[in-house]
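Issue 218. Parser rejects a valid record. Input:
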Amino acid sequence: MAFKADNQTINDLKIVGGLKGKDIFSLYNYTKTRGGAKVLKNMFLYPRSRKEEIVNRVNVIQFFKDNDIQFPVDNSVFDIIEMYLSNVDDRTRLTLHDNDLKRKFNHVIGSDTEYQQIHKGVVSTLIFLLDFKKFISELKLSEVTVEFSKDISSIKEVLDRSELSFLDGLSKVRKLSYANTVKYDQLFRFTIRETILKLLHQVYNIDVFIAIAEVASKHDFCFAEIDNSESNILEMKGVYHPLVPNAISNDITITEDNNMVFLTGANMAGKSTFMKTFSIAIYLAHCGFPLPAKSMRFSLQNGMFTTINLADNISLGFSHFYAEVNRVKRVAESVNENERLLVVFDELFRGTNVKDAYDATIAVMDAFANKRKCIFIISTHIIEAGEELKKMRDNIKFLYLPTVMNGKVPEYTYKVEEGITSDRHGMVIIRNEKILDILKK
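Output the parser choked on:
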């Protein structure tokens, strides 16, 4: 079962699609093959919400990490193999009858390029099959998960088929004779082509597992633990944003008794980064991937909606406020239809005047607070709304990111604390930048 996350959420968190090195996918993409990168990207786009699927993936990655397993095949052969296998034009089929004086003459003068391409594809396929068979035969099946053990057993069955029995007599691939090229080409392109494509897909999966295991080791990321109780809980220790240099870590625990977070803090105090950090950790946990934290325990969620970088829709004539209202409406419809959703709003109703934003923030948060099986994190500059909500609800956790004044210069700890901040330093920053002095001149 897929974990629901829409494009707004994926873009907010920079899961995929950012500039190279500027999205979460790039941080994890240690794959050696283009096919592996495609499989990894698909895993990022479709997190899971079933315990069995997540646990199986975690255990497989942990197996590759613990055993420090390296990628088994020369990665330069894969593009050659894919191009070779994509050519199924029967007119390119080799036959022994073509090995005539004309072909030999063309070979001498270097003009038999079509044959050379086929020969290169056959040799690359042989290298792949030999290396992959050796790798599979040396894996210790007793140490892998039950599901992955079944996958490995099915791969072994394919590699042990009679059509590939000749692999047992090969130790190294050298330049092939014309007759052997014809024989193997017939087998690979026209007899067991689909079988080889399936084996390629299997090695791409293994490429992903090895890559993610390398990420876990290199960055000392942890694997999240799924909570098996009926209650809804999220507990993170030392969680931080993986794309922020020298990121400050935080701890946070959310239960059904305080399933809504009211987050305040001055501009630049780190509210948006904290919300992204929390959301990214949840997202990665549902992918079954290691994540940037000391530890994490979580209840499975059915999906996530974030609204952090919501844009106006000028083409439809939508103002920022109307875009916000439409987003809140969509989220409201979703929480009515689904339990266990994570909802994040950064500066709710920033697109309207203070009075309307105050009234709307209280009304919407009060209504959302009824959905105790969902988790909400909502930031705002309207701290007065927090004081009113304290009187109305007992399931709201109030957190803030403090600002410490060093003389007239604000400094930020980026560590969440309990309570509601009264920090307002907008005018301090404006004065420090001497904007009014510039205008007076």
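Fixed in the parser; the record now loads. Residues 221-440 form a domain with the Rossmann fold fold (CATH 3.40.50.300).
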